[in-house]
Amino acid sequence: MRDLYETQRAMRNVRKAAMQRGVIAILDVGTSKIACLVLRFDGPDRLGDNDGVGSLAGQSRFRVIGAATTRSRGVRFGEIDAMQETERAIRTAVQAAQKMAEVRVDHVIACFAGARPRSYGLDGSVEVADNIVTEGDIGRVLAACDVPDFGEDRDVLHAQPVNFALDHRSGLADPRGQMGSTLATDLHLLTVDATAIRNLFFCIKRCDLELAGIASSAYVSGVSSLVEDEQELGAACIDMGGGSTSLSVFMKKHMIYSDAVRMGGDHVTGDISMGLQVPMQTAERIKTFYGGVVATGMDDREMIEIGGDTGDWERDRRTVSRAELIGIMRPRIEEILEEVRARLDAAGFEYLPSQQIVLTGGGSQIPGLDGLAAKILGQQVRLGRPLRVQGLPQAATGPAFSSSVGLALFAANPQDEWWDFDVPAETYPARSLKRAVKWFRDNW
Q1: Contact indicator for 385, 282 with CB cutoff of 8 Å
Q2: pLDDT tens digits for 46-62?
């Protein structure tokens, strides 16, 4: 745990150094694509140093000066599967973005999906030394949180204070400078497979780049796709990627739960490939141009030419009705949404004051998906696009770029995590077996 604290501190210092130079790269390592954005920060506040403990406190101004994507290779379920192939794909994306930006980039902030995320809700409380809350008190109360024994093979990816209480007053965003005698906090801890993080570290190092930060794509997609009211009142962001479907729940502008389903758009493509007996590339093209989840009477008559280059004239001239294609796609999409529903139920999502669901990610662009999702998830569902940021090319404004844009916002306004404060080493929390899951049912 102490090692992690040091690693995160080191990455934070690298990020500060990169911000001082004014240029940093954003890298979204996905299963279907690798996206790279180059950001330039300007103005005296470009360091991104803000005094708020709240979500995305302060505003750093940045502009996208380079953007590139390449087909992802060597990544499965959002995790690196073949190191050399992924390294080549990352180099391709970063070099193309650098060329567009006409600037060399040494530091990247990366995000990834998958890695079997697990959420914990922790709490801790301490007596305030001089009846006025200082930064030291925040460090002590964060250290007082009872960390569960999540296992040697897992690492903490995010640890964020989501609520502070001072005596009888709860729901404080930043208690510093306020008077009181007992300070308590609720902390959201997200752990992932340690191997997935280490592989990403190593891969980025092999590309001659320095990692200045790392985030869960479920979290950053929520940051860019949920509007302020949704983040405040309670909403879930479902990011449908190629290899996995991530979900994050936000409340009071903080992520309070995250999970992932190891299925995504590539699985739908795989079903089409097997059902129609065509290569994956052809299946992807058919899905993109003709896919859907709701069949109407018209779809029985709309015929799709499958095409092919096997040399067998009969086989290459085959056609299939759009209704048949929808019949292949719909069961898999229903399965993904049923899994998402099960995760949201386990998290106690129905206890939040608002239960808005936002679908984003490349897989969310299938026509009719929002209607089907509303039926299965039983909530209000809308399709989300990322916030517009300065300089972002038109081609990178779609739902597939939610995590890239969210990561840019995260880089500009890093949310204070527990290693932002000097957590005293001697009071570093002992691991305990107590697992406080579904905690926000009681806290909100």
Answers
A1: no
A2: 444 444 444 443 345 78
